[in-house]
């Protein structure tokens, strides 16, 4: 996988994807995913077997409409809409039970970056209540200046979502930190540095091609920042 080895400069802000970057999505998603399909069958909206877990995990980072087209391509629009509602409802319920997890070192690293006066944001293709619910449940919500989600702002792509964030906060130099090709695209098309997170493993081998740096552990981000040069 190719990385461009341009010299890193200290950013005024860092923009994080949520699933597969800050949050171990599978710890919340998979139990809710199986219960969701049980409920869809009970409501007679979907009568097939539950698609394999790797199918939904491989879709993480996509917009919800695109996810259901891949997971249940032959389902009705009513079934897909109900899947959206149920999955959010079940995940928000499970968040309160404290069974889900952040990646190791996320809270500590974000706290240290905050102490260094780096402005922290989230840009996610997920739903607003999900993104904010995860951040609140894991005590990282107060560390962010803004949590931007496609669900709240109705953006067509993460490129658009990140542009909106940058424009709103007048940010010129940011690091986009994420684990999917949509994060790389969002950073690069907005002229920003991209730090690819290679630890989640939800995508394929080409997923992070074009990143300026790859990290195998979230805590490496602080070292990258500390060793970056002042602009």
TrEMBL record:
Q: Which domain of life is it from?
A: Bacteria
Name by which UniProt lists this protein: Haloacid dehalogenase
Q: Which residues form the signal peptide?
A: none
Xref: InterPro entries: HAD-like_hydrolase_sf, HAD-like_sf, HAD_2, HAD_sf, PGP-like_dom2
Starting at the broadest rank, the lineage of the source organism is: Bacteria, Bacillati, Bacillota, Bacilli, Bacillales
